[in-house]
Write a structure and sequence with these properties.
Layout lengths: L9 E3 L8 H7 L6 E3 L8 H7 L6 E3 L8 H7 L6 E3 L8 H7 L6 E3 L8 H7 L6 E3 L8 H7 L6 E3 L8 H8 L2 H6 L5
Helix pairs in contact: 1-2, 2-3, 3-4, 4-5, 5-6, 6-7
Length: about 180
């Protein structure tokens, strides 16, 4: 694919709606820092695995609204620093568990407006520096208790509306979260 030979810092392909494994492999050969595919609305595990071989720092797939666990596992193998999946509108527990295996600095899931406790429990082991959940508008006590186990450096949930006192207390147990979402309290 000739586009992979582009020598800029960022390759942005906003009109790309679908990607097979062969073309994903070709795009992963791009030598810039940021590969951004916001028009991509779905991805299978083979294409995700090929894209995960991109050697840049940032992989942006903000057009994805849903992600299967096998595709999430493949994307979690990305060796860069930032994985942006901010278009995901919902998350299954097995997908959350797979994404928590990403070893980069930042995982962006800002498209989620709610998060079930089982998903929160499965995301909590993420050890990167930043977990972005800025689309969350409310959480219940069970979800707060699960997020309180967060192992990374900072959890960002700046859109979280005033929450139940018990949920707030649960989040405050983890200083990493308190620092990451201090504007919420």
């Amino acid at each position: 694919m000739a586009l992979a030979q582009f020598k800029g810092e960022e390759l942005f392909l906003g009109g790309l709606k679908w990607l097979d494994a062969d073309n994903a492999k070709a795009l992963a050969e791009f030598t810039g820092e940021k590969l951004r595919l916001p028009g991509l609305t779905k991805i299978d595990a083979h294409a995700a695995g090929a894209l995960a071989k991109f050697k840049g720092q940032t992989l942006c797939l903000e057009g994805l609204t849903w992600l299967a666990a096998d595709s999430a596992s493949a994307l979690a193998e990305f060796k860069g620093q930032h994985l942006l999946l901010s278009g995901l509108a919902s998350l299954q527990a097995d997908t959350a568990k797979a994404l928590a295996g990403f070893n980069g600095k930042a995982l962006n899931l800002n498209g989620l407006s709610n998060l079930a406790a089982d998903c929160a429990k499965n995301l909590a082991p993420f050890k990167g520096e930043h977990l972005f959940l800025c689309g969350l508008t409310a959480i219940d006590v069970d979800t707060a208790n699960a997020l309180a186990e967060f192992e990374g450096k900072a959890l960002h949930a700046h859109s979280l509306a005033p929450i139940d006192a018990a949920a707030e207390a649960a989040l405050r147990r983890n200083r990493k979260i308190e620092q990451g979402v201090a504007s919420v309290f």
